[in-house]
Amino acid sequence: MATAHQRMLEQNDRRLALLCKALSHPARVQILRYVMRHPGCIGNQILLHMPDNGPHAQSTISQHLRVLRDAGLIEAYDDGAAVCHYVNPDNLVWLRTYLEQLV
């Protein structure tokens, strides 16, 4: 039977794996960086400012945003005219802290 401490470690490991998986594509890292610098941005703004390292369709950006949202790294707010994106600072702080504990 797992102790409470072991269950907490397993839960943290699953959370870390989810966040790392969300960051496992260079385009998602670039999107996260852009959203950090431009809180409240919309998908079209992200698309227009992606580095020129390959074609990016709006649908591809939307899929990457969904992965980042599902992992909790980005939050979205529908203002009626567009979906605005923001970074979830709590999850970034948690990620940094947990990665530091690994090293």
Automatic annotation (TrEMBL):
Keywords: DNA-binding, Transcription, Transcription regulation
UniProt cross-references to InterPro entries, sorted A to Z: ArsR-like_HTH, HTH_ArsR_DNA-bd_dom, HTH_MetalResp_TranReg, WH-like_DNA-bd_sf, WH_DNA-bd_sf
UniProt-listed PROSITE patterns: HTH_ARSR_2
Pfam families cross-referenced by the UniProt entry: HTH_5
Record GO terms (molecular function): DNA binding; DNA-binding transcription factor activity
Residues covered by the HTH arsR-type domain: 8-103
UniProt-recorded name of the protein: Transcriptional regulator, ArsR family
Organism: Chloroflexus aggregans (strain MD-66 / DSM 9485)
